[in-house]
Specification:
The protein has 59 residues and is an all-alpha fold. The chain is built from two helices and no strands.
Length: 59
């Protein structure tokens, strides 16, 4: 089943944010590959913003 476009990921992230607040954690950090446009779109939708840029060389 395709879960894209029906809000499942947004609901999961919002639940995680609620749980974190209940544990007195108010800053949330995640890593996502720059090429993962669909994930970035979801994260931005729920309030995440780009903060740092990591760069690397090699495999």
């Amino acid at each position: 089943m395709n879960y894209r476009g029906i809000g499942v990921y947004s609901k999961i992230i919002e639940s995680l944010k609620d749980w974190c607040r209940s544990q007195n954690m108010f800053e949330h950090l995640l890593n996502v590959y720059n090429e993962n446009a669909s994930a970035i779109k979801v994260y931005k939708k729920v309030g995440f913003k780009k903060h740092l840029i990591n760069m690397r060389i090699g495999s």
